[in-house]
């Protein structure tokens, strides 16, 4: 059982794609607007035996803030076909509770006390585009074009929803934008983490593939 005191964050419904050279022109043609350009460092943490990531739980520091992503339903994976769905937490106390629950240990006063180890760190340059809500939907669709400092680029179409009931329609909206952009792939497209681990941490990468997390 998840702790009743844990305040749940939004659910991120997302689909990755391989960005071609025309993708920005296509986005603008379809009505998206460039919102901003950001550069940030993500550092990811786990136990030495990778218990968080093997459970599909992703803890990172993005610049000065802690963030946690994990599947909305216990015992399932966040990967759903070629799309993903993850709950996001950004409050450090909630993150500490959820991480200690995952590790089956008493909740400490601070995340630092868990003595987790950094296993990946990279800088991303992100160009963020936004579609206003379309066709009567209340959701805004965001498209991120990311380039990581290990010379890797990936695109993501994303919708944030508040409840599990909204996930199905969000998945359809994300898929529709991918179709219109001409980037709908049947199989999951590798992201920055999967590519980083494949290059830098082959053993961790292999364990995640074998556990069907990646
Ligand atoms: C296609 C795919 N993506 C992610 C996962 C699981 N996973 C691996 S690393 C990871 C955490 C990083 O998530 P991701 O969206 O890939 O990174 P980023 O775009 O920088 O974060 P955002 O700004 O969107 O919050 C997850 C959930 C998976 N199994 N398959
Ligand atoms: Mg993402």
From TrEMBL:
<dbReference type="GO" id="GO:0050333">
    <property type="term" value="F:thiamine triphosphate phosphatase activity"/>
</dbReference>
<dbReference type="Pfam" id="PF01928">
    <property type="entry name" value="CYTH"/>
</dbReference>
<protein>
    <recommendedName>
        <fullName>Thiamine-triphosphatase</fullName>
        <ecNumber>3.6.1.28</ecNumber>
    </recommendedName>
</protein>
<dbReference type="GO" id="GO:0005737">
    <property type="term" value="C:cytoplasm"/>
</dbReference>
<keyword id="KW-0007">Acetylation</keyword>
<dbReference type="GO" id="GO:0046872">
    <property type="term" value="F:metal ion binding"/>
</dbReference>
<dbReference type="InterPro" id="IPR033469">
    <property type="entry name" value="CYTH-like_dom_sf"/>
</dbReference>
<feature type="domain" description="CYTH">
    <location>
        <begin position="10"/>
        <end position="202"/>
    </location>
</feature>
<keyword id="KW-0378">Hydrolase</keyword>
<dbReference type="InterPro" id="IPR023577">
    <property type="entry name" value="CYTH_domain"/>
</dbReference>
<keyword id="KW-0460">Magnesium</keyword>
<comment type="subunit">
    <text>Monomer.</text>
</comment>
<dbReference type="InterPro" id="IPR039582">
    <property type="entry name" value="THTPA"/>
</dbReference>
<keyword id="KW-0479">Metal-binding</keyword>
<comment type="similarity">
    <text>Belongs to the ThTPase family.</text>
</comment>
<dbReference type="GO" id="GO:0006772">
    <property type="term" value="P:thiamine metabolic process"/>
</dbReference>
<comment type="function">
    <text>Hydrolase highly specific for thiamine triphosphate (ThTP).</text>
</comment>
<dbReference type="InterPro" id="IPR012177">
    <property type="entry name" value="ThTPase_euk"/>
</dbReference>
<keyword id="KW-0963">Cytoplasm</keyword>
């Amino acid at each position: 059982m998840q702790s009743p005191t844990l305040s749940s964050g939004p659910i991120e419904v997302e689909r990755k794609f391989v960005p071609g050279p025309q993708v920005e022109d296509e986005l603008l043609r379809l009505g998206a607007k460039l919102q901003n350009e950001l550069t940030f460092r993500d550092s990811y943490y786990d136990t030495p035996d990778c218990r968080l990531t093997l459970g599909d739980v992703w803890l990172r520091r993005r610049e000065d803030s802690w963030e946690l992503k994990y599947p909305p339903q216990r015992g399932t994976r966040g990967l759903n076909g070629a799309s993903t769905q993850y709950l996001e937490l950004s409050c450090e106390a909630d993150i500490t509770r959820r991480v200690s629950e995952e590790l089956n240990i008493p909740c400490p006063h601070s995340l630092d006390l868990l003595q987790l180890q950094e296993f990946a760190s990279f800088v991303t340059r992100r160009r963020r585009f936004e579609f206003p809500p379309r066709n009567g939907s209340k959701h805004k669709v965001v498209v991120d074009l990311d380039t990581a400092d290990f010379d890797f680029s990936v695109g993501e179409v994303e919708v944030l929803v508040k409840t599990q009931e909204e996930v199905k329609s969000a998945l359809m909206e994300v898929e529709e934008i991918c179709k219109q952009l001409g980037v709908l792939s049947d199989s999951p497209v590798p992201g920055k983490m999967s590519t980083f681990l494949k290059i830098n941490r082959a053993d961790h990468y292999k364990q995640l593939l074998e556990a069907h997390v990646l």
